[in-house]
Automatic annotation (TrEMBL):
Keywords: Cell outer membrane, Membrane, Signal. The keyword Membrane applies. It comes from Bacteroides reticulotermitis JCM 10512. Signal peptide: none annotated. Residues 71-315 form the RagB/SusD domain. This is Outer membrane protein. InterPro entries: SusD_RagB_dom, TPR-like_helical_dom_sf. SUPFAM superfamilies: TPR-like (SSF48452). GO terms for cellular component: cell outer membrane. The lineage of its organism: Bacteria, Pseudomonadati, Bacteroidota, Bacteroidia, Bacteroidales. It holds the Pfam family SusD_RagB. Belongs to the SusD family.
Length: 317
């Protein structure tokens, strides 16, 4: 793609920047077409660095009260977390990319190419195939790497300390191996445009969407999500939140500021996220026909086929 000429990674998909600033230019209202969810955020094992690399629970914008451009917490937005894999702040490390960010108005044509396949995706596919053909602990012909070894390579990379890696790995391996592959796929590849098609290939799309809805509903009714996220701003640069200071649960007080988090839905009188927003997600998937993720054939295509083509899956012509 051409830098500053095409491409919306960092804009349509990415960390949200909302407002004019000297650092990032007149961005207006960037990002937002791809969102992640509370059940996904909460599914990460403690210490997995991919959670914060993938899920953004904050945004940059102009404060309505102070008119300051600074980072703020999103709050209780369980179906509207931004994907932080593409972030203007990371572009600052590359002079050419950063110049494109500053030169743009309300939309950045970043020129960042879509990654077609990363090495972890290859390892996941390898683990899946070898497990099906030889089992999880046997190597494929001509290769010494087992399915377990391939999956462990991906999982280990996500943890800094060896004790945390081993603990997390042992917890993961208590599941059936294929289920472990499915989960690792989610933690590793979210926001990259491949998981939906893997779920379709596994015939798990409908099941996983239903599972997400059930998980969120149960968490609200059982009050298992933290009600607040407590945080401090960085002392060296008070424009940004100190992400190492986060404390989830009840209000901490003292030097901490706080924002309502996913658990606030439990005591919310309207419970709009639970009762309005959640049912609207993939609402047509299992109505007329279960797992109806295919789009209908266009009426113009049907009419010009002279009776050869017709819609199915509950769609009319």
């Amino acid at each position: 793609m051409g830098l500053n000429k095409s491409g919306e990674l960092g804009y349509t998909i990415g960390y949200r920047v909302n407002g004019v600033s000297a650092l990032f230019g007149p961005k207006g209202n960037s990002s937002g077409k791809l969102k992640l969810t509370a059940p996904y955020y909460m599914s990460f094992v403690d210490g997995d660095i991919r959670r914060d690399m993938t899920c953004a629970i904050s945004q940059l914008g102009t404060d309505k009260n102070t008119n300051e451009f600074k980072e703020s917490m999103l709050g209780n937005t369980p179906f509207a977390l931004y994907c932080s894999k593409w972030d203007y702040r990371k572009m600052m490390e590359n002079k050419t990319w950063y110049a494109a960010v500053l030169a743009s108005d309300q939309k950045v044509s970043s020129g960042i190419n879509v990654v077609k396949m990363r090495y972890p995706q290859i390892l996941l596919m390898y683990a899946e195939v070898v497990n099906e053909l030889h089992g999880k602990d046997a190597a494929a012909a001509g290769c010494s790497l087992t399915a377990t070894g391939a999956l462990k390579e991906i999982h280990d990379r996500a943890f800094a300390a060896s004790d945390k890696r081993e603990t997390a790995w042992n917890e993961l391996m208590q599941k059936e191996f294929f289920d472990a592959i499915v989960m690792e796929n989610a933690w590793e590849l979210a926001g990259e445009g491949v998981r939906k098609y893997d779920l379709i290939r596994w015939n798990l799309l409908s099941e996983k969407i239903d599972e997400f809805k059930t998980t969120y509903t149960n968490a609200v009714y059982n009050a298992t999500y933290p009600k607040y996220v407590n945080f401090k701003y960085r002392t060296d640069n008070p424009m940004y939140i100190d992400m190492t200071s986060l404390v989830f649960g009840n209000k901490v007080g003292g030097e901490y500021q706080n924002k309502a988090f996913f658990g606030a839905e439990t005591d919310d009188s309207s419970q709009k996220n639970l009762k309005v927003n959640l049912p609207s997600i993939s609402s047509g998937l299992n109505n007329a026909v279960k797992n109806r993720y295919l789009l209908p054939i266009a009426s113009t295509t049907i009419s010009t086929s002279n009776g050869k083509l017709h819609n199915s899956y509950g769609y009319s012509d």
